[in-house]
Amino acid sequence: MMVIRPVEPGDLPGLLKLAAETGGGLTSLPVDEATLAARIARSQQSWRGELPKSEQGYVFVLEESESGAVVGICAIEVAVGLNDPWYNYRVGTQVHASKELNVYQALPTLFLSNDHTGSSELCTLFLDPQWRKEGNGYLLSKSRFLFMAAFRERFNEKVVAEMRGVIDEQGYSPFWESLGKRFFAMEFSRADYLCGTGQKAFIAALMPKHPLYIDFLSPEAQA
User: Fold this and answer.
1) Is the four-CA dihedral 147, 151, 154, 160 of positive or negative sign?
2) Where are the alpha helices (DSSP H) in 67-166?
3) Do residues 123 and 78 lie in contact, with contact meaning Cβ atoms separated by under 8 Å?
């Protein structure tokens, strides 16, 4: 039988095993014992009502009851960006026009922002590949919505979900190679690890504040 329950300190080895199976790109599940242990502790403190809303987060695991193995994880952050900035790219439009030349171009842009500050976030969804069957993934994902519906007062009206980007088995990310690497001068795996362990200050320090034209990205990154 498959059981979804709140994470416990004894789940740490199982979470480390899951983190090692992600292949990178799942920022909130780094292969870092201290970070994951702190995440477990924060989840338990959230249940006990010991944290301000800005620090609350709930982590759940999917357990195979016969073996006791932790085969999946999902989580909810109550309010992102209230302690540390939560970054996102906003898709916008920049118009270039000339009546004299009869030219009108509406170009899509990306603008680094903090638009979702204060929103609740669905995050850290990962299921062991061997257990991606019999509706386990659906159960793991939808359980968060059931929890939020049961405890609506704990969460904000706006809910966001950060989708995992495209990354291949070698850790190659088209979007990172086309954009991020030009400003950070590091591999995607390194940047992903730094963000996952709470070291995000370099984003604000190094990323440009002006709009970026999507047409300048590679076709792979745009896709």
Assistant:
1) positive
2) 136-150
3) no
Q: How far apart are CA 158 and CA 153, in angstroms?
A: 13
Q: Of the spans 133-137, 173-177, 195-199, which averages the highest pLDDT?
A: 133-137
pTM for the predicted model, two decimal places: 0.87
Query: What angle is formed at CA 84 by the lines to CA 173 and CA 81, rounded to 5 degrees?
Result: 85
Domains and CATH numbers, the chain: 1-82+117-164 (3.40.630.30)
210 contacts: CB under 8 Å, gap ≥ 6? none
Contact 57, 79 (CB under 8 A): no
> Model confidence at 73, in pLDDT bands (50, 70, 90)?
very high
Higher pLDDT, 184 or 62: 62
What is the separation of C-alpha 184 from the centre of its chain, rounded to a whole number of angstroms? 19
Neighbours of 59 (CB within 10 A): 25
Helix 12-21 vs helix 33-47: crossing angle, to nearest 10 = 120
**CB contact at 8 A, 120 and 83:** no
Give the span between the Cα atoms of 135 and 120, in whole angstroms: 25
pLDDT tens digit sequence for 154-196: 999 999 998 878 888 777 889 888 888 888 877 877 877 777 7
Average pLDDT along the chain? 91
